[in-house]
Amino acid sequence: MTDHPxxxxxxxxxxxxxxAISELVRPLxxxxxxxxxxxxxxxxxxVVSHIIGMECELLGDPRPIHTLPRDLYHVVDEPSRxxxxxxxxxxxxTGPEMTGELEYTIIRRSRQLRNEKRAxxxxxxxxxxxxxxxxxxxxxxxxxFDLWVHEQDLRRALGKPGNLDSAGATVAxxxxxxxxxxxxxxxxxxxxxxxxxxxxSGPLEFMRTVRVGSDGRGTVDGSPSLGPAVTLSLDWETYVxxxxxxxxxxxxxxxxxxxGDTKLAKAILENFSVTP
Length: 276
Fold this sequence. Notes:
- By secondary structure, this protein is α+β, with helices and mostly antiparallel strands.
- The protein has helices at residues 8-25, 44-58, 78-88, 95-114, 136-158, 167-178, 180-187, 236-243, 262-270, and strands at residues 123-125, 133-135, 194-201, 206-212, 218-221, 230-235, 256-260.
- The strands form two sheets. It has a five-stranded mixed beta sheet with strand order 5-4-3-6-7.
- The model has no long low-confidence stretch (mean pLDDT 94).
- Keywords: Isomerase, Pyruvate.
């Protein structure tokens, strides 16, 4: 257990998701590692490679020296290039090599987290390009979020649903909800003095209202709105797929109920993704 209780929920969420991922991939036969996931251009092997790579970087391991092929169409900028190196370097690894490295990484990283002495507000280096500083608490929160989203990528690819209401799901919900004001006010261009309600059902049900003030800035809270411009009703898994950029709005149109301004609703749904 960490020295700071405020970090423990993120450590617990991280642990639950990464152990679930290990359990999911341990019995896979070689062909199953090549199944496509909804994470653009990545297979099951690629998603697990990404997870291993990110955790190894947090352990302080040196980054692989590796030249990417030139035909990777999904590598469009420096962040995607940075992430792809850890993935591409493992593309020819066998199933046993993948599970062995994952399990060893989990052991090492779990030990590191158990022995964490730094305060939640301690500054740490972001593992993405640029080396900006973030707090340790934010870093752990992002890792719990990323792992749960990728756990769901793997579950959908392998036909093994589950953990939609886990600790990681709660972390993911809170982070995704925090992105709603930008989606509604900036990306979708909702006019000032507009309210938009998101009514989410399923294993992790909630209702949130985004209000766009007279200054055009959006805020989000859990209180209901009288006469919102738009109400979007959808299930939790559809919400996750949209917010994580795993599906286009038109592909799940039959799973989203729209009340109110359909033009604004369409703009929101087409700009719903809050992940990089």
